[in-house]
Amino acid sequence: MANKNILIAILVLVIVILAGVVVYAFVLRPAYTGYVVDRQVEGYNVCVSNFISQLQQNGFVQIDLGNQSIYLAPIVPEQQTQQTETSGQQAG
Length: 92
What we know:
By secondary structure, this protein is mainly α. The longest helix has 57 residues, at 2-58. The N and C termini lie far apart (104 Å). The protein has a two-stranded antiparallel ribbon with strand order 1-2. 78% of the residues lie in helices and 11% in strands. It has one domain (2-91). The protein contains two helices and two strands. The protein has helices spanning 2-58, 77-91; strands spanning 61-65, 68-72.
């Protein structure tokens, strides 16, 4: 009788553990992953909107990376073509 009760207790424990694994795999993990992706998209949107705001205010965007800086500025294709033609005339 005692062995039968121990076996039932072990089987119940195994079922509870398996149910926990299923709940984690199909409910908790997808919910957490969705939350993480939502936060990443929100961070991306904030970053891009800050870049656009700085670009409109300053005409360029400065990104500091430690002791280095990266400057992003818009290029107008007409100006780039004119600069290329001007530099070609100066060289020739």
